[in-house]
TrEMBL record, chains A, B:
Pfam families according to UniProt: DHQ_synthase, DHQS_C
CDD domains per UniProt: DOIS
Keyword Magnesium carried by entry: no
Domain of life: Bacteria
PANTHER family: 3-DEHYDROQUINATE SYNTHASE
Keyword NAD recorded: yes
Full protein name: 3-dehydroquinate synthase
One Gene Ontology molecular-function label: 3-dehydroquinate synthase activity
Residue ranges occupied by any 3-dehydroquinate synthase C-terminal domain in the UniProt entry: 180-321
Naturally occurring in which organism (per UniProt): Xylanibacillus composti
Gene3D superfamilies attached to this UniProt entry: 3.40.50.1970, Dehydroquinate synthase-like - alpha domain
SUPFAM superfamilies for this protein: Dehydroquinate synthase-like
Length: 380, 380
């Protein structure tokens, strides 16, 4: 059983992870002194996950289950409002706690509802994907999408506790596991390269992974994320490194309309960022190849069509890093590395400006090299 | 010119009020280092107010005007989302500031948009009603309504500065001024009774009031609100006294569907609360009569129909104070006074439970006594 206290600035919360973690979570639930719980669950979850979670909370008070579809297309304020309306109609008041059960989108939408209902109700995360367990619950950021871009509307909100019940993660398709591993690859390349050799010994393109291996993956992420967020809980300074791969990644995610997961898109975005960094003389050929090798080892492949490449342009122009630094015409703000574990600084800013033409070139080059990888049958 | 630094806990912001305040506001705008401004304005405002405000901000950067209807019926998350979508489509980024121009609803909706866009953009309030200038901008609370009740969804967000341009308040109808004065009566009865004699010398049921008198009204409010919020910025403890009159007031506001303003409803709610407090032996006959006298002196009258009384019940059951204290069946949580300037405590809580039957009786008694006032032609 992995037990950690996550400390981001002045914000702290308990993190419990393991086979049977939910059984040992009762004291954390009791500590909320809530007499009612709104359990916000992804309706696609296997029934045993909902039943077991309901059971764990029913010992402590009344539980009202709100089931919703949680795709990127539902990640908007209407869903938050819909949940709040249902919660209040059921009788939620200031003594009610909110429980998020599902992947990253469920966690963010439920997190927004918890932050806004009565100006803040206690929040518990029970993540059911590797991506949520190792990435989105290790952040204070909650957000939903606007038509013009991902995560443009949100707030910072600290959960009271996180419980990762590993038995819930056993039914995940390998593709979701790979998606989570992409963010882990990002964290290791950008923050903790010294742990890459250890990480590589665990990787198998086809999986599957044991509970123990999953627990280690999650622990790697806690290690990397707390290192940068300990002194930057709002991810505005050194924490911006967590956005590595996300400029092109978010654009692809929006352009491909659900064809690729968030992690797969970030993986593609990191390869583009590495290509750009090599062109700027910031990364060596070896360091760029390490990006490719790690993504290949976890079995990720992404194919970008010409039409998607064209559509991505509108999205990266609206990237939500805009404004961290005064904009430059025809340039896009990127998080780049100038070595493994080192974020590049340009004129004192964590955002490096990249000419749009070079972004296009990188996306094109990576789309084609991925084709080559696929043609040679390296992965999956 | 009234110049104050509003200090609520660790949160501080500048407050400027006077004839020509907007002309002297330029340094506060410049201090934001914003290069773009989203000006969110009530579309019902007189054109000169919008023109003059646009002009004041255009000196500092690009300004995008978003005009919307701001009634209680529009005070919901869809309006917030609509504003955010428009702002981003126009090009708002992290270096953009949000300016709220209008009454309390405009300030709250714009405040929510500022709090949520990019997880928080700088916020400036230019209130154009006495109610907004003296009450809603003197709070960190931002909120919108749900179907089941007012202000159930919101957050705490600190503006950077407030500018009350008194020339904008000159065109206000007397009824709006009276609405603002109702909240002021509440603040004086509940927090600063020692200033009531001074306040009464300024009152005339038919108005109008000079700029100087308006400035003094606003200063009374700053004085009262900072006294309780200095150590309770989130209005959860001693600050709960600001909710005086709001349990019945909010219910009436929802039941009367816009017929009465927020202040008029709070005035009615205070009379009900005083009636209840007298029945509990908490207030003397003189203290109750002072409520009536002050409201009569500012010229407020509210007529509640039998149907509205019936509808109010569903709303007070969903009052957003629920959960500050564990609920009791058939009782409603109230903020009551046990003397002028003294909030009643019951079992250590600021919420006093009142049997529903007594709430009904109070509402009925006050609805009838108001009828009597009207029949005798005392007001307006």
């Amino acid at each position: 059983m992995l037990e950690r206290t996550i400390q981001f600035g002045a914000h702290a919360y308990a993190f419990l992870c393991g086979d049977g973690a939910l059984d040992q979570f009762s004291p954390a639930i009791a500590a909320l002194s809530a007499d009612r719980f709104i359990l916000i669950a992804d309706k696609e979850l296997p029934p045993f996950i909902k039943a077991r979670t309901l059971h764990a909370f029913e010992e402590h008070g009344k539980v009202h289950l709100i089931e919703t579809a949680f795709g990127e297309a539902n990640k908007h304020l209407q869903t938050v409002q819909h949940i709040c309306e249902q919660a209040v109609a059921w009788g939620a008041d200031r003594r009610t706690a909110v429980v998020a059960l599902g992947g990253g989108v469920a966690g963010n939408v439920a997190g927004m509802a918890a932050a806004l209902l009565y100006r803040g109700l206690p929040l518990i995360h029970i993540p059911t994907t590797l991506m949520a367990a190792s990435d989105s619950v290790l952040s204070l950021k909650q957000a939903v999408n606007l038509r013009h871009g991902k995560n443009l509307v949100g707030t910072y909100y600290t959960p009271r506790a996180v419980c990762v019940e590993l038995t819930f993660l056993r039914t995940l398709p390998m593709r979701e596991i790979r998606s989570g591993l992409c963010e882990l690859v990002k964290n290791l390349l950008a923050i903790k390269p010294e742990r890459i050799p250890e990480f590589r010994t665990l990787l198998r393109p086809l999986g599957p992974y044991t509970d123990q291996e999953m627990e280690r993956f999650i622990d790697f992420c806690i290690d990397a994320k707390t290192e940068v967020m300990r002194h930057d809980p709002y991810e505005r300074n050194e924490g911006l490194v967590l956005e590595y791969g996300h400029t092109v990644g978010h654009a692809l995610e929006l352009a491909c309309k659900g064809r690729y997961s968030h992690g797969e898109c970030v993986g593609f975005g990191m390869r583009c960022a590495a290509y750009i960094a090599e062109r700027f003389g910031l990364l060596s050929e070896y360091e760029v190849r390490l990006h490719e090798d790690l993504l290949r080892q976890i079995g990720v492949k992404v194919k970008v069509s010409a039409q998607q490449m064209a559509e991505m342009e509108a999205y990266w122009l609206k990237d939500n890093k805009r404004g961290y630094r005064q904009s430059q015409p025809d340039h896009i703000g990127f998080v780049l590395l100038n070595g493994l574990g080192r974020m590049n600084k340009e004129s004192g800013s964590s955002i490096t400006f990249v000419p749009q033409s070079l972004v296009r070139e990188a996306v094109h080059a990576m789309a084609c090299s991925q084709e080559a990888v696929k043609a040679h049958g390296h992965v999956d």
